[in-house]
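Board notes, transcribed. Complex of a protein with glutamic acid.
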Amino acid sequence: MTNLGHHKEQSASALIEGAEKIVIKIGSALLFNPEENGLQTSWLEGLVSDVARLHRGGKQVIIVSSGAIALGRDEMKLAKGRIRLDEKQAAAATGQIILAQAWNDAFKAHEITTAQILLAPEDTETRRKHLNARSTMQTLLNYGCVPVVNENDTITTYEIRFGDNDRLAARVAAMMSADLLVLLSDIDGLYDKNPSRHDDANHIPVIESITDEIMAMGESANAEFASGGMATKLAAAQIATQSGVAMLICDGSAVAPLSALSDGAKASMFTAKMAPSTARKNWIAGALDCAGTITIDDGASTALGKGRSLLPAGVTKITGTFERGDVIEICNAKGQLLARGLSGYSAAEAQMLMGQKSANFEAIIGYDGRAELVHADDLVLIT
Ligand code: GLU
């Protein structure tokens, strides 16, 4: 994984070209305009041509798309102005079908398969669900699909939800160890003052650290004219950059907004200080709650040292109570701590699989589980 967004002189388009895994967030206002023919199909086609070009170049792309509530309200002919929460949730259920269909049709023209993923905060935050969401999404990417993600608005509890797709997109980017998050906005980046009111407002092209001064710009100067609000975009930037994901805010309204960047369109770039894989390993290494310990044989210890995954066949002892996704410690036969990692199985299942080859897993636990007890991506060696 490359460490992107590290160099001051790097342009927004160079950042995109250098990324391997990109999350692109699209706001409702870009996709849907109730005054002008509703769904902005030709804009969507332009964006998808841009994305298809990246996809053909071998990049893995995840779309985070808003618009379900706006489309659903229109389809259900709900009253203008404020609507109740249950009406919003109902609208999301209707609109999500239309939204997913629109993305599917636009990508189909480029022979790219899409997949719909609806998430709630716990899906990206609790470790157990995080592993499931991460591995499903990674499998889709490996098969060349473009996942289209939104919040599961219809069934989320309104108090427990992301609420805005800027932060949802940042969490998805962090969970997937993406190199880059692109927020397509109605403004071409962060300004120190509101540019529509102040001629002397300065555009900020590169933000290397999200200081209080930068946060204050989000709260005051930009809040009135950026639809999602610049404050939530800066909150997204904090989540992303802490996880090693660089972030771009750019104007999404152009016909092909990503290509526009190579033609010199302005953007604000938030740099990340470390690679996403390093950030993930720090997160695992720094977890305070270790739920159990696994002792492994010499063969497995050697394999771990070479960067391989831990398989149940090399395990000799398991202590503690843990669930899939919990952090566990891994010790060698002498009891020395070798590594920490996220367990792919619960303690009860791991007990049953200990010493076994993967061909026997289904007969033992009743389903054809994954081969690794701790996947190499979820494992950090303690030296
Ligand atoms: N999930 C909402 C929707 O699809 C949008 C949230 C947002 O725009 O930030 O309608």
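The first helix runs from residue 12 to 18. The chain is about 40% helix and 20% strand.
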